[in-house]
Design a protein that fits this description.
Blueprint (H helix, E strand, L loop, with lengths): L8 H25 L1 H6 L8 E6 L6 H5 L6 E6 L13 H12 L4 E7 L3 H7 L1 H7 L1 H7 L3 H8 L5 H21 L2 H8 L4 E8 L4 E5 L6 E2 L1 H13 L1
Parallel strand pairs: 1-2, 1-3, 3-4
Antiparallel strand pairs: 4-5, 5-6
The chain binds zinc ion.
The site of zinc ion (ZN) has 7 residues, from helix 5.
């Protein structure tokens, strides 16, 4: 949702050509190098994680987590939003239900990110509503995060950071309203986690289990290791 420079038709053709050349390289180089992996995935998937993140081009789940094809079931939309159950019975709700009930993923990660255009849009609601009414309607699913943050009257960058973090908390809460998620959580078959990815630093912060603070990655890893031993 940043201002995009007007592209000439020539440049658009070059971009499409780039995509096709990329596929060519994949088919003839990357694919043969990982043939066994791709063939093992040909007739089924068993991803361990549903990864909900923003559609932002700078957030690349498989790269950030260094995972392989078949590992992550990914759901992307602007603002890494999961509407509460019954609010909007649209794509995201179906993805959640399918991932939990059919694929039996063991965890769901909601990953927000720095410099998020959707969260900036939430801060400038009026302007968004005028030019992008569909986006504005979608962002209503993050409205409660805006209310929480702005009662504290933060300023500048701190406001955006707080909103990005609060939105992750809110979408985790929305996830719990989905019957498939509630049931899997009650049976101890599913874990939820909130992340914020920092584009500039290449780092992820992880929401603590009590939902209060964002931990450094080292702290989060330590916590997971302690739980694995216990
Ligand atoms: Zn974003």
């Amino acid at each position: 949702m940043n201002d995009s420079t007007h592209k000439k038709p020539d440049q658009e053709r070059a971009n499409l050509l780039q995509l096709l050349q990329g596929v060519n390289e994949f088919t003839h180089k990357a694919f043969p190098e990982n043939r066994e992996l791709f063939q093992s995935l040909a007739n089924g998937q068993a991803p361990h994680t549903l990864f909900v993140t923003c559609a932002d081009s700078r957030v690349v789940p498989e790269r950030i987590t260094q995972t392989r094809p078949g590992d992550l079931f990914v759901c992307r939309n602007i603002g890494n939003i999961v509407p509460g159950y019954g609010e909007m019975m649209v794509g995201v709700s179906a993805v959640v239900e399918y991932a939990v009930s059919a694929l039996k993923v063991r965890q769901i990660v909601v990953c927000g990110h720095s410099d998020c255009g959707a969260m900036k849009g939430l801060m400038a609601q009026q302007a968004v509503a005028e030019t992008m009414p569909t986006v504005a309607a979608w962002l209503r699913n993050a409205e409660a995060a805006r209310s929480v943050v702005f009662t504290r009257k933060p300023e500048g960058d701190a406001a955006l950071t707080a909103l990005i973090e609060e939105n992750v908390r809110l979408q985790l809460a929305h996830l719990r309203t989905h019957p498939s998620v509630a049931a899997a959580l009650a049976n101890g078959e599913l874990a939820l986690q909130g992340w914020v990815y920092n584009i500039e630093r290449g780092e992820v912060q992880v929401l603590s289990e009590n939902g209060r603070d964002f931990l450094t990655l080292d702290q989060a890893i330590e916590q997971q290791q302690a739980e694995a031993v216990a």
